[in-house]
Design goal:
Order of helices and strands: HHEEHHHHHHHHHHHH
CATH topology: MetI-like fold
Structural class: mainly alpha
Largest sheet: 2 strands, antiparallel
Family: Belongs to the binding-protein-dependent transport system permease family.
Strand content: under 5%
Membrane topology: Multi-pass membrane protein
Main location: membrane
Shape: globular
Distance between the termini: 65 Å
Subcellular location: Cell membrane
Oligomer: single chain
Protein name: Sugar ABC transporter permease
Length: 317
């Protein structure tokens, strides 16, 4: 029996402290884990309070009708979604939204990439031009839009410049086509500097040796751009495209300040239509339903772009 007890004592693992005392609860590993959770707690709490809970409330409100003026709040089931399917204005709103988004994305990304390629050259004064192109990004959106509103009027600065060369400019914000184009151009000039900086950073990370080897092989500038530059900066192209597409679907201030959705409904995009239904006509339940539609559109487009990365983004398999 004594031999068995001695064998068990030898086989038993030694006490972690070695002195018979209990192991402390707040070990170094637990302290590090707690510190990590404390660091992410503000972001996690903000996401829950300002993203997840409001998103859940929007879905809940979409099944109710809330009349603030009458003080009534009642459940209506799927009536708001049936009204959405039968809304005669919705197809026009979606067309205006698609036209605005496509125009903004194409012009923004194209101009940003062209500016980045030019500013990536070793040219005198490139730093000054980088600052000039990026400065609208940090300007107040409302102030920027108000200034452009004055410039785009019939007797505004743009038409005054056209008069100097004998051209009679239109009232840019009162034509169905010119108003949408004007809003797109204002938004492009406002945010093109951000994408330009992202593209410029990506271009500066492309190894120069690849261009030199391609030049030796006889590749011209256009071929080097398509075969070397575009594949290597494709992750940045994906990032900027997602940011720009999502931003184009959430535009509001420019429409509210410049055109108020007019003339007619030619510039009434989905976000502005949502605002009208909820805060002008006090149809909060229907406004929440439009918010759900906007959320689904953004979600689908983002997922499609993310899945397409495997086909054209460099380093993706």
């Amino acid at each position: 029996m004594a031999t068995l007890e001695r064998a068990r004592a030898k086989a038993a693992p030694p006490h972690p402290r070695g002195d018979g005392s209990r192991r402390p609860f707040w070990t170094a590993r637990r302290r590090e884990t707690l510190a990590g959770y404390l660091f992410i707690a503000p972001q996690l709490l903000g996401s829950v309070l300002f993203v997840l809970i409001p998103l859940a409330l929007v879905f809940w409100y979409s099944f109710h009708e809330w009349n603030v003026l009458a003080g009534s709040f009642r459940g209506v089931g799927a009536d708001n979604y049936r009204a959405l399917a039968d809304d005669p204005k919705l197809p026009g709103v979606l067309r205006a939204t698609a036209f605005f988004s496509v125009g903004l994305v194409v012009l923004n990304l194209g101009l940003a990439l062209a500016l980045a390629v030019l500013l990536n050259q070793k040219l005198r004064g490139s730093i000054v031009f980088r600052t000039l192109f990026f400065s609208p990004v940090v300007v107040s959106l409302v102030a920027w839009t108000i200034v452009w509103g004055f410039l785009l009027q019939k007797n505004g600065g743009i038409n005054a410049g056209l008069d100097l060369v004998g051209v009679d400019g239109p009232n840019w914000l009162r034509g169905e086509t010119s108003s949408m184009v004007s809003v797109i151009v204002v938004q492009v000039f406002k945010n093109v500097g951000l994408n330009m900086v992202l593209f410029l950073a990506a271009l500066q990370g492309v190894p120069r040796e690849l261009y030199e080897a391609a030049t030796v092989d006889g590749a011209g500038p256009w071929r080097r751009f398509l075969r070397i530059t575009v594949p290597l900066i494709s992750p940045t192209i994906l990032l900027t495209s997602i940011i720009t597409v999502v931003g184009s679907l959430q535009v509001f201030a420019q429409i509210a300040v410049l055109t108020q959705g007019g003339p007619g409904n030619s510039t009434t995009v989905l976000v502005y239509y949502l605002y009208q239904q909820a805060f002008e006509f006090h149809h909060f339940g229907y406004g929440a339903t439009l918010s759900v539609l906007l959320f689904l559109i953004v979600l689908v487009l983002t997922v499609v772009q993310w899945q397409m990365r495997k086909k054209w983004v460099f380093h993706e398999s």
